[in-house]
């Protein structure tokens, strides 16, 4: 499962709407919707607030996504974030958006050609 799906399930388990969660978090319903559909990822500040409000374990959600917090190492304690898959996920999201934009550009080009042909016939 991805973070968005888990967030939605946790919110619904609390019988809370996106609007209600957004109000408590002092953000917009659209932002919550984007998080739940994995179009964006909440900041660490929001993740902490979500964890508190929905009474969930965000660290386990992040670990499933390849993001772990390394608290102990040979040199002692630290709070380093080790992100195994996040950059790959961002790259995939970026490439997908580029493909969508390319498709939109092609569609607009075709519409322009169509309109030019209409004007040429007149």
What does this structure look like?
This protein is 66% helix and 12% strand. It has 122 residues and is of the alpha+beta class. The protein has helices spanning 3-13, 18-25, 29-36, 44-54, 58-64, 86-121, and strands spanning 67-73, 76-83. The model has no long low-confidence stretch (mean pLDDT 83). Strands 1-2 form a two-stranded antiparallel sheet.
SSE inventory with pairings:
Layout: H1 3-13, H2 18-25, H3 29-36, H4 44-54, H5 58-64, E1 67-73, E2 76-83, H6 86-121
Antiparallel strand pairs: 1-2
Helix pairs in contact: 2-3
What is the helix tally? Answer: 6
Whole-angstrom Rg: 21 Å
Strand order of the largest sheet: 1-2
Q: Which residues form runs of ≥5 with pLDDT under 50? A: none
Helical content stands at 55-70%
End-to-end span in angstroms?
Answer: 57 Å
Total DSSP E strands: 2
Shape, principal axes of CA atoms? elongated
Pattern of helices and strands: HHHHHEEH
The proportion of strand residues reads: 5-15%
Class computed from helices, strands and strand pairing: alpha+beta
Q: Give the mean pLDDT.
A: 83
- Let me know the largest β-sheet: 2 strands, antiparallel
Main attributes?
122 residues; alpha+beta; two-stranded antiparallel ribbon; 6 helices; 2 strands; 12% strand
Brief synopsis:
By secondary structure, the chain is α+β, with helices and mostly antiparallel strands.
